[in-house]
Design brief:
Length: 446
C-alpha cells in the first residue's frame, strides 16, 4: 500500500507508455496460452516475455543487456505490465532463450498476426498498395575459408576426444596435430596471403592433418558404440560426419571443382551464400529475407529462404502471409527491376497472387507499357520507401547479424525486428491521428 504507482510518476506521453496501449495483451495471451502447461511451476507471464523481446529489438540490445535494463528502467517495467517498481530479480537472460524455444516459429507468427490484426482493426494499417523487396540477413559467423574450416573441425574433434578420455577413458593413441596445424594456419594467413601457390600447398598439408584426425576419431566412435557408450559415440560421430564433409569439399575446391552443398560454418550447416550485386558486400553468408511494406512504412509480411533464389519467386509467399496477417490482399504491388518478368508471366502471377495491378519496372531501355499511368508512377514512388526501412531494420533492430541459431533463428530475428519497427510506426501513426482529431474537434467547437 506504500508503493507509488507508475501512473502517478511516469510521463503518459512517452513512446513506450503510448505504445503499450496499442497492443492487445489479452489477445496475445490467448494466442500463446496453448504453449504453456497447467502442471508444474508457472512460467513467466506472457506479457513480460513478449514485451521484453519487443524492447530488446526496439533498442538493439542483447538478452543480458535487456534484462539489466528491465531491472533499472521504470518505463520498461511499465511496458511489461508492472504497476509499481520491482526491486528484486525479475527474470534471467536464459529465460528469454527458453521462451523462444517454447513457442518456436509458429508462436512467433501468432504474435505477429495478433499485433497486425489488432492494429488493422484500429485503422492503423493500410493494405491497398504495398512494395516488396529482398535483402540478405548475415549469420553470426566468421568469413569462411577452407583453411579456417579445416582448422576448426580438427580443433572441435580433438576437444571432444579429450572429453571422452576424461569421462570414459581410452587407451588408443590419438595424434591431434595441435602445434603443427596452428603453425601452418599462421603461415597461410600471414606469410603466404599474396602467394597462391605456397598457400595452396599449405592448405593441402592442413587437409591431410584434418583427414588424419577425422579417421582416428571415426575409429574411436566405432569403439564407443561397441562398448555401449552411445551418447558419447553419437556426439563424436556427428563431428566426424561434418569433418568428412569439410575434407571432401576442400578437395573439390583444390581440384578446381565447385561443391554442390558447400559448408560455410561448423555450427551453422544451412548458411547460404547470398549475392545481391553490391560493391561494398559482393557476397554475404546467411539467409535471404523478402519484405512487404505499405505506404506508411509498416511491415505487413516477410519470408526467409536458406538459398539465393530470384526475387520474383518470393512474392507469392509474402502475399499469402500478408493475407493471413491482415485479412486482405493488396490492390497494387510494386517492385524494382529484380522482380521483372515477361508480361505473360506477370499476368499469370498476378492472377495467382490475387493482386489487381503490378507496378514492376522493366529491365533495359524500353519502358513498361503502363509507365505513363498515374497509378504506376505513384506506386514506383512509394516503392522507394522500402530501402531506408531495410537500413533501419539492420542498423537499429538487430537484422544486421542474426545471432539466433538455425533457420528457425532467422525467422525469429526477422519477426521480432519487424514487430519492434511496426510498434514504433503504429505509435507515431496513432499520435498523428489523435492530433488531427483534436484539431478537428477544436475547430468544430470554435
Amino acid at each position: 500500500m506504500f508503493e507509488l504507482n507508475f501512473a502517478d510518476l511516469l510521463d503518459s506521453g512517452h513512446e513506450l507508455m503510448r505504445g503499450k496501449k496499442l497492443i492487445d495483451w489479452d489477445q496475445l495471451h490467448e494466442a500463446l496460452r496453448s504453449y504453456y502447461s497447467t502442471r508444474g511451476r508457472h512460467g513467466k507471464p506472457i506479457r513480460l516475455m513478449v514485451g521484453l523481446h519487443l524492447l530488446k529489438h526496439h533498442y538493439n540490445c542483447s538478452d543480458e543487456r535487456a534484462v539489466e535494463e528491465l531491472h533499472e528502467n521504470a518505463y520498461w517495467q511499465s511496458f511489461c505490465g508492472f504497476k509499481c517498481f520491482q526491486r528484486g530479480q525479475i527474470v534471467e537472460a536464459t529465460t528469454l532463450v527458453k521462451f523462444r524455444d517454447r513457442i518456436g516459429v509458429e508462436g512467433m507468427q501468432h504474435i505477429e498476426t495478433a499485433l497486425l490484426n489488432h492494429w488493422h482493426s484500429k485503422g492503423l494499417v493500410k493494405t491497398r498498395r504495398v512494395a516488396v523487396d529482398s535483402t540478405a540477413q548475415p549469420k553470426n559467423i566468421a568469413y569462411p575459408t577452407d583453411a579456417d574450416l579445416l582448422y576448426r573441425i580438427r580443433e572441435r574433434i580433438v576437444k571432444q576426444v579429450k572429453r571422452v578420455r576424461q569421462t570414459i577413458g581410452l587407451k588408443k593413441p590419438f595424434r591431434s596435430f595441435a602445434r603443427v596445424s596452428r603453425k601452418v594456419l599462421l603461415n597461410i594467413k600471414k606469410l603466404y596471403c599474396n602467394q597462391p601457390d605456397k598457400r595452396q600447398q599449405k592448405i593441402k598439408e592442413l587437409l591431410s592433418m584434418a583427414n588424419r584426425v577425422v579417421r582416428q576419431a571415426s575409429r574411436i566412435s566405432n569403439s564407443l558404440y561397441a562398448r555401449g557408450h552411445k551418447d558419447a559415440g553419437r556426439k563424436l560421430n556427428q563431428l566426424v560426419s561434418v569433418g568428412r564433409r569439410v575434407v571432401n569439399q576442400t578437395r573439390q575446391v583444390l581440384k578446381g571443382e565447385k561443391p554442390d552443398r558447400r559448408l560455410y560454418a561448423i555450427h551453422e550447416h544451412k548458411v547460404a551464400a547470398i549475392k545481391k550485386g553490391k560493391a561494398n558486400k559482393p557476397c554475404e553468408f546467411g539467409s535471404l529475407v523478402s519484405l512487404t511494406i505499405n505506404d506508411d512504412g509498416m511491415i505487413l509480411s516477410h519470408a526467409e529462404y536458406q538459398q539465393n533464389i530470384s526475387d520474383s519467386k518470393t512474392v507469392g509467399k509474402v502475399v499469402n502471409r500478408m493475407k493471413a496477417n491482415t485479412g486482405q490482399r493488396p490492390d497494387v504491388l510494386a517492385g524494382d527491376r529484380g522482380f521483372d518478368q515477361s508480361y505473360k508471366k506477370q499476368e499469370c502471377c498476378r492472377r495467382r497472387w490475387g493482386v489487381k495491378r503490378l507496378a514492376i519496372a522493366k529491365k533495359g531501355k524500353k519502358p513498361h507499357r503502363d509507365s505513363d499511368a498515374p497509378w504506376f508512377k505513384k506506386a514506383l514512388m512509394q516503392r522507394v520507401k522500402i530501402e531506408p526501412i531495410i537500413g533501419h531494420l539492420k542498423a537499429d533492430h538487430r537484422m544486421d547479424r542474426c545471432r539466433y541459431k538455425g533457420p528457425e533463428g532467422d525467422t525469429t530475428n526477422v519477426v521480432w525486428a519487424a514487430a519492434a519497427w511496426n510498434m514504433r510506426k503504429a505509435t507515431r501513426i496513432h499520435a498523428v491521428k489523435q492530433a488531427k482529431a483534436q484539431k478537428r474537434k477544436a475547430k468544430c467547437a470554435a
